[in-house]
Specification:
Elements lengths: L25 E6 L7 H20 L7 E6 L6 E7 L5 H14 L9 E5 L2 E6 L13 E4 L9 H15 L7 E5 L4 E6 L5 H16 L6 E5 L3 E6 L13 H4 L3 H40 L15 E2 L2 H7 L8 E5 L2 E7 L5 E7 L5 H15 L9 E6 L4 E6 L6 H5 L9 H21 L14 E3 L5 E3 L28 H6 L5 H16 L15 H10 L18 H14 L10 H9 L13 E2 L5 E2 L6 E4 L4 E4 L7
Parallel strand pairs: 11-15
Antiparallel strand pairs: 1-4, 2-3, 3-5, 4-5, 6-9, 7-8, 8-10, 9-10, 12-13, 13-14, 14-16, 15-16, 17-18, 19-20, 21-22
Helix pairs in contact: 1-2, 3-4, 3-6, 10-12, 10-15, 12-14
Length: 638
């Protein structure tokens, strides 16, 4: 699973460091508890990813031994990050990489894994994680022996403190330095922002203080690493002058820092004397338990950032009309500019507040905020005031997909853009259904809920919001929440909710993307008013070209690819739930080069008058909720 839901197990613990060139003393290893749905493809991609990483490292210059790999366009996507400590040679870095790869077999087909040595860090996941700094499960790794040098604890505290302040200001986010009888290093993944590096190293600094007065200590986290030792583990010529980054230099700073070091040392010594017994007991317990605890991305969920109501009110200019981006079933959305200049989207939920609503709001939002996928709009935080429940999302520069499909934007999408949007949507929905640790059924997949970033990459919005409805405390609730025309008949009429409800809606949206027309249009002649009905007619007549949006440049169209995608859409909208593919299967079908041998049958849908269309024989369904009787059939194959 993803880092925010992965449960890692610390499998090996060494109290004595191995001072060797590759520095392959294992500190931390963990694997996802969720396996890839397509094991052979995933393991093939994983091997390819390791080859890419090794090749990139081999061609790197020493001192810049950090690299990433991305295989996003796949039914088994992979994102990987590897970096060595700055003082390792290229050959030692490659040796550390090889050692790390050899440990990943313990993860099998788990969709995520991480190995941390003294000398390097390797991590891979099925979703992007490169911006993650500190995560729950960050911890210290301490040796058992105590340093005998007087003032060692104070010197280690001062050095690690300086490293935590200086490294975020250094170009490659890494440094090794020497203090009074102590050696130290700190490093952030160079994919982090400076703020994320600062935060990660602050946590590492706090954690590593728990090791003192041990002679060796490390702090491991998702995006950073820190270490101190009473023995050198790098060459003298590989140190960095931290004073340049701390704003101090010369004899005056040395004198000042000596005084500060003495004060800090006295204070630390007092703390050590007070808690020595506690630390010894704690370390003893760590050795006895063999450290079978969790590490980064454990089951503990990160909570969303809590915003102040006054800040969001100011950011949206008091929720002014000029800042309004739109509105949907869950409330109005406003563009907001935070004090730091970051642009966000603020959703003002149209939910009747009650004590039970407020009680569940934060727990449900906490769950949603841990959903992290490149094709899902990221929830940044929330605000619960006396009168409003507000959600803060990342801002999507190009707005919603419907504006491009249905003529509100004076810009036509190319076939490549449309295909990428279809595949991205499929991957996002598949993640919600099968890869997140709780199955989330969206229930309202439609173009207005598909947002586009500045690169026209799709991000699905409003997932999980149905969980916030007061009467809907379960993701399997049968309370209807959808849009007729996109909603599967079994859900709209019977309230039968499965993941295949989203599959059906996705199929309708595919056809809208290809045709550039809405699923129903009363202005057209009766035979063409309903998109699914018209598409089936074209399919039977083998005239699918007629469906293609005329605004697309014919020379840009991959006709066979488009026909395959149309067929996938028809498979998604089958009347029988069991016949519809899962979304992970949809991803495979979309990306496969060959045509599926499965032939679709005539689709079925609920139009705005709540009549099911597409019937050839009847068996009545009745629903008191919709006050309608509809005819539904099983259709013969073409």
């Amino acid at each position: 699973m993803l880092p925010h839901t992965i449960v890692f197990l610390l499998l090996l613990w060494n109290t004595e460091p191995i001072i060797s060139d590759p520095q392959t003393n294992l500190l931390n290893i963990g694997c996802s508890t969720y396996n890839a749905s397509n094991t052979s493809l995933f393991l093939s991609n994983l091997n390819n990813t390791f080859s890419i990483l090794r090749s990139k490292i081999s061609s790197s210059a020493a001192g810049n031994l950090s690299t990433t790999s991305e295989l996003p366009q796949s039914a088994a996507p992979l994102y990987a990050l590897f970096f060595c400590r700055p003082y390792l040679s290229l050959s030692d870095c490659l040796a550390c990489f090889a050692a790390a790869v050899s440990f990943t077999h313990r993860c099998g087909a788990g969709t995520g894994g991480r190995v941390i040595f003294d000398g390097c860090t390797l991590r891979y996941e099925s979703a992007p994680f490169f911006d993650q700094g500190t995560l729950p499960g960050n911890t210290a790794v301490c040796s058992s022996g105590s340093a005998t040098l007087a003032g060692f604890a104070a010197a280690a505290t001062a050095l690690t403190g300086d490293l935590s302040l200086a490294v975020p200001k250094i170009a490659n986010y890494s440094a090794a330095a020497k203090g009074d009888g102590v050696y130290g290093t700190a490093q952030c993944a160079d994919t982090l922002s400076e703020d994320a590096c600062v935060q990660c190293l602050q946590v590492a600094y706090t954690n590593i203080q728990g090791c003192l007065p041990a002679e060796n200590g490390r702090a491991v986290d998702a995006g950073c690493f820190m270490r101190y030792s009473n023995m050198s583990f790098f060459s003298e010529n590989q140190t960095v002058d931290l004073s340049h980054y701390l704003g101090v230099s010369g004899g005056a700073s040395k004198s000042t820092r000596s005084i500060v070091g003495g004060v800090v040392g006295a204070f630390v010594a007092l703390l050590i004397l007070s808690f020595l017994t506690f630390l010894l007991i704690k370390k003893s317990r760590r050795r006895e338990d063999d450290w079978k605890g969790d590490i980064l991305g454990a089951t503990e969920l990160r909570g969303p950032v809590s915003f102040r109501y006054s800040d969001l009110k100011s950011a949206t200019k008091n929720f002014s009309k000029e800042n309004k981006l739109g509105e949907g079933g869950f409330g109005e959305v406003y563009k907001g500019t935070l004090k730091n200049g970051k642009i966000v989207a603020v959703k003002r939920l149209a939910i009747v507040q009650s004590e039970s609503t407020k009680a569940s709001f934060k727990s449900e939002v906490k769950l949603i905020s841990n959903v992290n996928h490149r094709n899902l709009v990221r929830l940044l935080g929330c605000c619960s005031s006396r009168n409003d429940l507000l959600l803060v999302y990342e801002y999507m520069a190009n707005g919603s997909l419907d504006k491009f499909l249905f003529g509100e934007k004076n810009e036509s999408l190319s076939w490549k853009q449309r295909f990428d949007i279809i595949v991205g949507m499929a991957k996002g929905i598949s993640y919600l259904h099968q890869e997140f640790h709780v199955c989330i059924i969206h229930r309202d997949i439609k173009p207005s809920n598909i947002l586009l970033d500045e690169n026209f990459q799709p991000k699905i919005a409003d997932f999980g919001l149905v969980r916030l409805l007061p009467s809907d405390q379960s993701h399997l609730s049968t309370k209807f929440a959808g849009t007729l025309g996109y909603t599967a008949p079994e859900y709209a009429i019977h309230g039968q909710l499965t993941e295949k409800v989203d599959t059906y809606s996705f199929g309708v949206v595919i056809l809208e993307i290809i045709s550039g027309r809405r699923n129903s249009n009363p202005k057209l002649e009766p035979i063409n008013q309903y998109l699914l009905e018209w598409v089936w007619k074209l399919y039977e007549e083998d005239d699918m070209i007629e469906l293609i949006d005329k605004s697309m440049n014919p020379s840009d169209i991959e006709l066979e690819e488009m026909k395959r995608v149309m067929k996938v859409a028809l498979l998604c909208t089958q009347s029988m739930v069991a016949v519809r593919p899962t979304m992970s299967e949809v991803v495979v079908l979309l990306l496969s080069q060959g045509d599926s041998n499965i032939e679709p049958t005539r689709p079925i849908f609920i139009d705005s008058s709540t009549q099911a269309r597409g019937e050839t024989s009847s068996s009545a369904w009745s629903s008191s909720a919709t006050h309608a009787t509809v005819s539904v059939t099983q259709f013969s194959a073409r």
